[in-house]
TrEMBL record:
PROSITE patterns found in the cross-reference section: ANK_REP_REGION (PS50297), ANK_REPEAT (PS50088), BTB (PS50097)
The BTB domain, residue ranges: 115-182, 272-343
Underlying gene: LOC101847117
InterPro entries per the UniProt record, alphabetical: ABTB1, Ankyrin_rpt, Ankyrin_rpt-contain_sf, BTB/POZ_dom, SKP1/BTB/POZ_sf
Gene3D superfamilies: Ankyrin repeat-containing domain (1.25.40.20), Potassium Channel Kv1.1, Chain A (3.30.710.10)
Name of protein: Ankyrin repeat and BTB/POZ domain-containing protein 1
Upper taxonomic lineage: Eukaryota, Metazoa, Spiralia, Lophotrochozoa, Mollusca
Keyword Repeat: yes
């Protein structure tokens, strides 16, 4: 429903609604409909410059000389919008935020940190990580166990091997997406076939058909770069989840080694380089994931706190106080950007996510908590949201109160929260606002479309005024 609402807002030019969906509901701005069109395309087509500018500022995908970029330029209703699109010289796939999973994976290709193998293709070097390539591609997993066993540098000098194609294949294996020059598409297909990446071959062929079909219908337009978006993010997360499962101690791993579909000797090696000991359980993990995703673990593993101990094969680090149940969720999040969260322990996971400097996991906990909001806990969840800086959870709770105001407004803990917010405003003037009251009023008044909804909103606003009068607060 939110996705359809976003398309509707972009077609109508409803910026306020779009901002609400993107910033509060966290709807993906690059989502596609059944016609393979994005919100940015409809905003361009309908001539809403403010919507286009907002989406570009939020990192909507519209690279020059790609299918999406050329389509938006061609379909733009006005020259002003075309000039706006062109002014974004490098229109990135999204605004880079350090904690984003995709950005983390992309950085791994650029940095040599914790890489344990280098591919040298006709003299050009590509540092990589055996654990990631083994989890993502059975061809690489088998080669690391045989022909490339213990080789720190792998030379690939075959005349048919292209440096650009190899780099694009690595990009796909690390991120689930790929950008490649149209001149190198055939080389990528050949290399994908050699690496037994049949899903990638299908994606390339399908995108080529769509691009060439669209290009042929638009004389004078030429697409020079083929872009595969991370439509297969579920596959990427599934493959990297294998590393998390292989990191689990045997007594915690739900996978039964030795039964179908794998025999023990056919399982890829995971190449761990750090062991975490949690309540006497040993987790065989990878520094590249823990250090790349958490500044806390980066400092810890660089021995700033002197807690690293040398084990028999890999360094062992004891983590104190955290429970196994919580650490398993943190482990799964670090590897896959996702984990199962339930009401009975999501609060503990949130606390340790804050401790381990994992803002993405904190937001995931907040999203999970939204499903558990009810009349008995809505005020306490607002306090939790403020304590851990989770504005989306706080806004969701304020919206819940707005929708259930008659049941919440008489609760003593809610009145105490209003009094606290009012007292936090120093030297209050008559025009000063009260945070929680302002948020509730916003959700009561916003998006009112009919006369009956207006009457209902006015009645709720009167309830708030009566409560403030009862509490002797100007608000």
């Amino acid at each position: 429903m939110d996705i359809q609402d976003m398309f509707h807002a972009c077609k109508l030019g409803d910026l306020q609604r779009l901002q609400y969906l993107v910033e509060m509901k966290e709807v993906d701005i690059d989502t596609r409909d059944k016609w393979d069109s994005t919100p940015l395309y409809y905003a361009c087509l309908c001539g809403h410059r403010d919507i286009v500018e907002y989406l570009l500022d939020k990192g909507a995908k519209c690279e020059a000389n790609t299918f999406d970029g050329e389509r938006c330029l061609y379909g733009a209703l006005t020259d002003d919008i075309r000039n706006l699109l062109k002014s974004y010289h490098v229109i990135s796939s999204r605004t880079i935020r350090r904690e984003l999973y995709e950005e983390f994976l992309r950085r791994l290709l650029q940095d040599r940190v914790y890489s344990d193998v280098v591919f040298r293709v006709h003299g050009e070097e590509f540092p990589a990580h055996r654990c990631i390539l083994s989890a993502r591609c059975l061809f690489f997993a088998n080669m690391f166990k045989t022909k490339w066993l213990n080789k720190p540098v792998v030379e690939l000098n075959h005349s048919l091997m292209s440096e650009g194609a190899f780099g694009s294949i690595l990009q796909y294996l690390y991120t689930g997406s790929m950008g490649v020059s149209m001149d190198l598409v055939d080389d990528c297909l050949k290399l994908a076939r050699q690496c037994q990446l049949y899903e990638l071959m299908t994606e390339i062929e399908d995108r080529m058909k769509k691009t060439l079909s669209w290009e042929s219908s638009k004389p004078g337009v030429r697409v020079t770069t083929l872009v595969l978006e991370s439509q297969g993010s579920d596959v990427l997360q599934r493959d990297l989840a294998q590393l998390a499962h292989w990191a689990l101690p045997d007594q915690l791993n739900s996978w039964v080694v030795g039964e179908l579909p794998f025999e023990p000797e056919s399982l890829p090696l995971s190449y761990p380089d750090i062991c975490f000991c949690v309540q006497e359980h040993k987790f065989m993990c990878h520094k590249v994931f823990f250090c790349g995703r958490s500044d806390y673990f980066q400092a810890l593993l660089e021995d700033h706190f002197g807690e690293c101990q040398q084990g028999e094969s890999v360094p062992t680090l004891i983590l104190h106080d955290v429970s196994v149940d919580v650490f398993v969720r943190i482990l799964m999040y670090i590897y896959t950007d996702s984990c199962d969260l339930h009401a009975d322990f999501v609060g503990d996971v949130l606390m340790w996510a804050d401790m381990y400097l994992l803002p993405g996991l904190k937001r995931l906990c907040a999203s999970s908590m939204m499903a558990y909001v009810d009349l008995s806990n809505v005020v306490s969840l607002i306090r939790t949201a403020r304590l851990f800086n989770l504005p989306r959870l706080e806004s969701h709770c304020a919206e819940f109160i707005a929708n259930n105001l008659s049941k919440v407004i008489s609760q003593e803990d809610f009145k105490a929260l209003v009094i606290e917010d009012a007292s936090n405003v120093q030297q209050r003037e008559e025009t000063d606002s009260i945070d929680i009251v302002d948020e509730i009023r916003f959700y009561i008044s916003s998006f009112v479309l009919t006369y009956s909804e207006m009457e209902e909103a006015n009645e709720k606003l009167r309830l708030i005024d009566d409560m403030l009068e009862e509490l002797d607060i100007e608000g």
